Automatic annotation (TrEMBL):
Residues reported in the UniProt entry to bind heme c 2: 228, 231-232
Protein name (Swiss-Prot/TrEMBL): Cytochrome-c peroxidase
UniProt cofactor(s): heme
Domain of life: Bacteria
Gene3D superfamilies for the chain: Cytochrome c-like domain (1.10.760.10)
Lineage, broadest ranks: Bacteria, Pseudomonadati, Bacteroidota, Flavobacteriia, Flavobacteriales
Length: 354
């Protein structure tokens, strides 16, 4: 009378334990909060992490795999990393990137780092996309870039031998859709944090700058000389950009309207996002259209190459003189300082490589 119920209870307990510990059980993903550098936590606001897409070990690993996988393109020939290479601080060393059909775009690929601190949550040179998750939607269906469709991508991932299990581990479901794909990629991209340049170490008291680098920093901060800090910040802004949109005197007339295309406001024509000055050692060519092959050409533009147009930014104060008119010594020192913002550890970090 007693033994039969006891056996049933033991069987139920055993089955329950096997169900919880068995291979079919779905475990929760492991939280993996961003490791925020001291210079960031001391000087700027916390990063932007969506409530519905927290950082997890499994989500980051999945996003990294997707980032380097050409399966996202129509013919399995091109991955995100083809236009955003780790060794180039996640940009392209070519002026314009080739798409799957060999067609080139008309803008230089933006480098990818410190993206979690885009407080306005707009992306691309003209700010045409809101949020890092939505940004990842664009290249897949772009007719010049990956030229695929999300239906096609979802089907390929769903039929893949590994991806359904990886999505289940990261998001608790093996049913793959575009939203989860872009969430995973965004998680990986948010881990791309660059904060260990020579200048960072100088600010932390870990190294010294050369006299040339120090003078270059002074040129950068001096309104009468370089006057660079208005758009790119100071030592109190470790992002080295204001992340705003400016017409920096590249053209008298515009073939690319930039922000003006997005807003429809003629006053925004010719305005593009100020890129970060970090990692310039690795991110040539420069400007939204990659027109400048090296840092010297960039410095010469601001020194004596400014062009007036109807939307020229008021911060280009010396437009009438064509630029700030740097001496050759100040140009060389400014270049030395700018290169001190490059982070060799970042481009060689195995956590970011394929």
């Amino acid at each position: 009378m007693i033994r039969k119920p006891l056996i049933l209870i033991l069987l139920c307990i055993t089955f329950s334990c096997e169900e919880e510990s068995g291979s079919t059980a779905v475990s929760k993903p492991t939280p993996s909060p961003l490791q925020i550098p001291k210079l960031f936590s001391d000087n700027i606001l916390n990063p932007v992490i969506p409530i519905d897409n927290p950082q997890t070990v499994e989500g980051i690993a999945l996003g990294k795999k997707l980032f380097f996988d050409p399966i996202l393109s129509v013919d399995n020939s091109q991955s995100c990393a083809d236009c955003h290479a780790p060794e180039n601080a996640f940009t392209d060393s070519d002026r314009f990137s080739d798409g799957v059909d060999g067609i080139r775009g008309n803008r230089n690929s933006m480098p990818l780092f410190n993206l979690a601190w885009h407080y306005d949550e707009t992306f691309f040179w003209d700010g045409n996309t809101f949020s890092l998750e939505h940004q990842a939607f664009v290249p897949v269906t772009d007719p010049i870039e990956m030229k695929s469709s999300w239906v096609n991508v979802e089907q390929k991932l769903q039929q893949h031998s590994e991806y359904p299990k990886l999505f289940e581990q990261a998001f608790g479901t093996s049913t793959i859709d575009s939203t989860l794909v872009t969430k995973a990629i965004a998680q990986f991209e948010r881990t791309l944090i660059s904060a260990n340049s020579k200048f960072d170490k100088f600010l932390l008291g870990e190294t010294e700058l050369t006299p040339e680098e120090l003078n270059g920093f002074n040129v950068f901060m001096d309104e009468a000389r370089g006057d660079c800090f208005h758009c790119h910040g100071s030592e109190k802004n470790p992002l080295w950009t204001d992340n705003l949109f400016h017409n920096n005197g590249l053209d008298e007339t515009f073939t690319d309207l930039g922000l003006g295309v997005v807003t429809g406001n003629p006053a925004d024509n010719g305005k593009f996002r100020s890129p970060s000055l970090r990692n310039l050692k690795f991110t040539a060519p420069y400007m939204h259209d990659g027109r400048f092959a090296n840092i010297d050409e960039v410095i010469n533009h601001y020194s004596e190459g400014l062009k007036r147009s109807s939307t020229i930014d008021p911060l280009m104060k010396k437009i009438d003189q064509g630029g700030v008119g740097l001496t050759e010594k100040d140009k060389a020192d400014l270049k030395a300082f700018l290169l001190s913002l490059s982070d060799d550890e970042f481009v060689n970090n195995s956590a970011f490589g394929e």
